[in-house]
Amino acid sequence: MSAARLITAVGVAFCLLELGRAMGIPVPGPITRLLPIATRAPAREAEGVQMRIERALRTTNRRLDASTSERITRAILRCERDQSLDPDLVLAVLLVESSGRPEARSSKGAIGLMQVMPHMFEELQLPGNVAHIEANVEAGCLLLADNMRRLGEERGISAYFWGGSIQGDGYLRRVRSVLATLAQAPQPAVTASDG
């Protein structure tokens, strides 16, 4: 069972338990004893995702310190929560765009980890500035999610690079290549005592 399905199942079970309690319906003891056990697995899996993202960032950009790597990771995980984007996809786009370098600037004027153009950042009316890690990743995620909603996954990813006139699938192939590499990377071991 995927983490998302497990989290959903646990969430539904918890809501039903709470609804039952609110309505005065007795909740069987075995169910209430199992709920804390079921909620630990998603927490351990989420911790594993965080560790994997941080490891990929620090492997790609060895100059990243732990604090910056954690900030980037938290921003990527916020994209999953706020934009329903797969964190691996966000990480793959980020690595293709900037190799995990927050200070990256392109010859065309794109800035930061997600290589956001300043005029696009202004259109989004986000707080902060385009060079700020969290604002840059948020802007990139908003643009990527909007592209994918409007154009579908493949064209949406391609449009992130090309804009309105997609000219080939080279960018999409690079993102998919990074995704494949991430999928093959060993998963960090997270033990029950870690969660």
What does this 3D model show about the protein?
With 195 residues, the chain is mostly helical. It has one domain: Lysozyme. It has 8 helices and no strands. Helix 3 (66-83) runs parallel beside helix 6 (133-151). The longest helix is centred in the first third of the chain and has 32 residues, at 29-60. The radius of gyration is 20 Å and the shape is globular.
Task: Report a brief summary of the structure.
This protein has helices spanning 3-22, 29-60, 66-83, 87-98, 118-124, 133-151, 153-162, 170-184. By secondary structure, the protein is mainly alpha-helical.
Notable characteristics:
195 residues, Lysozyme, 0% strand, disordered N terminus, globular, mainly alpha, single chain
How many domains in all? 1
CATH level-1 class:
Mainly Alpha
Cα-atom Rg, whole angstroms? 20 Å
Q: Note the main sheet.
A: none
β content, as a range? under 5%
Number of strands: 0
Q: Estimate the helix proportion, in percent.
A: 55-70%
Oligomer: single chain
Q: Summarize the helix and strand pattern as letters.
A: HHHHHHHH
- Shape, per Cα inertia axes: globular
Alpha-carbon distance between the termini?
Answer: 19 Å
Structural class: mainly alpha
Task: Provide the CATH architecture.
Answer: Orthogonal Bundle
CATH topology description? Lysozyme
Poorly predicted runs of 5 or more residues: 1-10, 29-42, 191-195
The residue-averaged pLDDT reads: 82
